[in-house]
């Protein structure tokens, strides 16, 4: 919820999330799969964010499994958007990030988050997750 609320402040974006108070992600995906957060930008870009908390030994396999789960949906969305980006935000139960979290960092740069906001968001999520 913290990411959705923080991202909601972006004036050039519309946020869809699978939490109360936000339009459902299925409005965009039209799909049974519902990612945790979608961010639709005015420049016809779409960012898909999936949050995963798991054990350290399964981080990489969880990231690959989620990416594969959404692969077909991402391809379908590319028909309606100029750019579709999928990002996993993987955090272990001990607060360790998987290297795929760099996709999240790239997403926040494209959304014009400053470095301080990005770091604060990750720190906040870590505290919630563990």
Model regions low in confidence, pLDDT < 50 over at least 5 residues? none
| Count of runs of 4 or more consecutive helical residues | 5
Q: Summarize the biggest pleated sheet.
A: 4 strands, mixed
What is the β-strand count?
Answer: 4
The level of helicity is 40-55%
- Total separate domains: 1
Judging from the principal axes of the Cα atoms, what is the shape? globular
Mean pLDDT: 79
Strand content: 15-25%
Q: In whole angstroms, how far apart are the ends? A: 15 Å
- What is the structural class? alpha+beta
Please write the string of helix (H) and strand (E) elements.
Answer: HEHEEHEHH
- Strand arrangement within the widest β-sheet reads 1-2-3-4
**How many whole angstroms does the radius of gyration measure?**
14 Å
């Amino acid at each position: 919820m913290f990411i959705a609320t923080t991202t909601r402040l972006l004036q050039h974006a519309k946020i869809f999330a699978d939490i109360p108070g936000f339009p459902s992600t299925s409005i965009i995906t039209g799909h049974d799969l519902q990612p945790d957060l979608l961010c639709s930008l005015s420049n016809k870009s779409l960012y898909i964010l999936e949050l995963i908390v798991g054990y350290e030994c399964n981080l990489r396999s969880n990231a690959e499994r989620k990416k594969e789960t959404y692969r077909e949906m991402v391809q379908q969305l590319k028909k309606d958007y100029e750019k579709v980006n999928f990002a996993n935000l993987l955090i272990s139960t001990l607060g360790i990030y998987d290297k795929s979290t760099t996709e999240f960092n790239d997403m926040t740069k494209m959304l014009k988050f400053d470095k301080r906001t990005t770091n604060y968001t990750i720190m906040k999520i870590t505290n919630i997750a563990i």
